[in-house]
TrEMBL record:
This is Multicopper oxidase family protein. Residues 47-157, 164-265, 361-459 form the Plastocyanin-like domain. It comes from Zhongshania marina. Keywords: Metal-binding, Oxidoreductase, Signal. The keyword Metal-binding applies. Pfam families: Cu-oxidase, Cu-oxidase_2, Cu-oxidase_3. PANTHER family: MULTI-COPPER OXIDASE, MULTICOPPER OXIDASE LPR1. Residues 1-25 form the signal peptide.
Amino acid sequence: MKRRTLLKTGAAGFAGACFPTLSLAMSSADKASKAEYDYILTAEPAKARIAKGGDSDILGFNGQFPAPVIRAKQGKPLRVLFINKLDEATTVHWHGIRIENSMDGVPHLTQPPIEAGESFLYEFTCPDAGTFWYHPHMNSVEQLGKGLVGALIVEEETPQDYHDVVIGLKDWRLKNDGSYLPLSIPREAFRDGTLGTIATVNGQQKPTIEVPAGERLRLRFLNMDNTRVFNLSMRDNAAQIIAIDGSPIDKPVPLDVHPTGAGMRLDVGFICPSEIAKEIPIYDMKGRFGVEICRLKTVAPAKKISKKTGIPALPVNPIPAPQLASAESLSFVFEWAGALSPSDAQGQVDHNFWLINRRAWSDHSHQHLPEPLAVLSLGKTYIFELHNATPHHHPIHLHGLIFTVLESDKKTITPFHTDTILLEKNERAKIAFVADNPGKWMFHCHVIEHMKTGLMGYITIA
Ligand code: C2O
Ligand code: CU
Ligand code: CU
């Protein structure tokens, strides 16, 4: 099989010119095993200019930020040779992929940690097309917080008539000189989480992303931040949501304001104005006010494009339909143990502030796994009744499966597929899925500090 390079240059010219442009094709591990993988990915310390006033010590996939965009094909195997060049153990998790359990990248639960200097071949097939991402599942406050997050795009079996624009969002806890602030502050960890101080889009502060005039765009927003919720909006510009968290929706709907929590994604279809140098701002809304996160700017297209009209729906992924009539319901209550008030030990988060069904699991380096939150029978449909009994929001994520959101007591739901549901404070919601993927699957909040302070567990499907 022919090796792919890390980046296809075609789209990169219009992607804000900020993605690394070349692969590590010539690394030494390469030569022996050319046929055996599609990508080499390392995790390694590096320097990057994020703050205006100086370089930062980051942890980067292939030493870069933003990390290389990995592109896979729906239904085709993807092989990534991962090399750990950090000075500590790590793993790589492929967020949103209905993957084989042994490739899910959770230390102890699905594989031994990949120790410093070791490598691991991740090999799996992506059954669904869409916008996914990858990140470690160890020492996550630091490893993700310092840059180990990247986009994984799974292309449809049949190419779609959209021009791709990847918009990767991540904030950093940096001072202006590029040095770090404490990545986690306990009194924040037990609220909404510690917010970054410098916002980046594809590694740059408030970039202007060049896009071809008159083209139909697929804006792939990825919230790869540890903490923040982006209330994505393009205001008066007629944009339409075409996929939520990687899963296409049946019929595109107008994008008004879409709350996108940590770990979540949003695909938006948008037809660019045909005038050159038109600027289209993109916002994170706070009530009626918007903070601009980046803007698009039209440039002359490289090649002549046909006139685009309408925002076509994407092909729906092959997610099995839940059999609600025969489903078993299980309830999960997320609670706040805020009464255990945090002591402000120098940025160290060693508390349990959060519980799932009265249990906290915060120790990812444990040798002994706790009992699963639930054991599900393979092939059966389950309804999870989720209750966020805390005064804070939580993007609750399930590995290895894609579920359907059925209802909520806070908003009207048109059922949709997702791997992460953003629960508002005190919200109750119902989700359903067919437990068709055997293994041990993490079930946790994607506010990384919440996960590290108890809001984490797993379910077993057997
Ligand atoms: Cu992005 Cu445990 O996941
Ligand atoms: Cu995940
Ligand atoms: Cu949370």
